[in-house]
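Appendix B, Record 12. Input sequence as logged:
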Amino acid sequence: MKKLLLLVCSIFTSISFAQTDEEVLRTIYTQSLTNGKSYEWLDYLSNKIGGRLSGSANAEKAVVWGQTELEKLGLDSVWLQEVMVPKWIRGEKESAYFQTNSETQAPVNVCALGGSIATPSSGLKAKVIEVQNFEELTTLGKEKIKGKIVFFNRPMQADLITTFSAYGGCVNQRYAGAMEAAKFQAAGVIVRSMNLRLDDFPHTGSMSYGDLPNDQRIPSAAISTNDAEKLSDALKKDENLEFYFKQSCEQLEDVKSYNVIGEITGSEFPNEYMIVGGHLDSWDLGDGSHDDGAGVVQSMDVLRLLKESGIKPKRSIRVVLFMNEENGLRGGNKYAEEAEKNKETHVFALESDAGGFTPRGFNFDCSDANFEQVLSWKPLFKPYLIHYFEKGGSGADVGPLKNDSNVLAGLRPDSQRYFDYHHASNDTFDAVNKRELELGAATMTSLVYLFDKYGTNPLVSAKELKD
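Logged structural output:
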């Protein structure tokens, strides 16, 4: 009789504690909004450590901090994954002005682009030629470009609702502008900041010289959108004006750094891995709160929220704090290389690298069958105003894990304000809203929970079969 009573109690307890998916998501959101850690973590990462350029002392402090905090969560394992990263330093604060025939100097706000060489120690001064694209460079030719500073002034397209599309439409002038202008023997390059609003903040970002020899490389800097407008207006009045800028940046030898990884081992399928992550490095002008401190702390909180919500994952779930997304992608590539070498099966990967704003949904890089499964979950997210479920790019750091069967996803917050802060000195902790950040962490955790519970769909959809 006693054994029968215990069996009945056991069955009753199991049924009582069985939760629907709606109830589990409600628990996750409640935990994040009333007991979240993401904002507290971001406060420390941003205000106690600060900007975390790859190879810098602050980046290494962030590695130690990340490992320590993950160990406090009582995960099954926490470790560092060694990766060599580039070390570029900005040096002294940049200065710039343009000068018209009246010899009046108009100061402007500029910053060196990541990876650029320095100007001569006394600075660089030359006439300016404004262009919109690389085709215009070819049309002008060496005769009109040689010895001048090329001013790339193509703005982000304001009528595109998805601001990342606007960014993608003009970022090539920042990344490859110096490489292209150097082919025509330009003296230097100034690029309009990747920013939709008019303000005084220059926005840095990575650039490349490709395979240009060192003696053909030219300095490259970003100019604020307000000052880009002023310079363009001044050129219309005086095409012979001169522009001066000075920067003392330098590329040093690669140095050792680390990805920071924590894991909850799966209870049923420990050899199937799901990861969630953001990049620990940032640019040096601000403290990297939106890009990508927000993604780092949200990803950390996913594992904490799973534990706090009483969820025991079937599959092994890892948080990965990637190093060197901004100027090299070494961390993402290293993680994928090690996963392949160790023959690890990664079924799902989620990245947060679009700021800590209000979550709207996700982009998915997956099969039609898996996407159909995702769409079936939309009603679960409706109470939280999460409505954006689209096929598209996931994230730079998880991208190298892509194969024919897994699912990659990227959190998509509201993007309208993101490029106001992206890679600029105003990307600071005060620009992040606590509630928005916590909603993002809960949304990520909910998606991880669902993919862990139901797995990735192995079936081929009717459309794929037809194709």
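Residues 23-88+253-459 form a domain with the Aminopeptidase fold (CATH 3.40.630.10).
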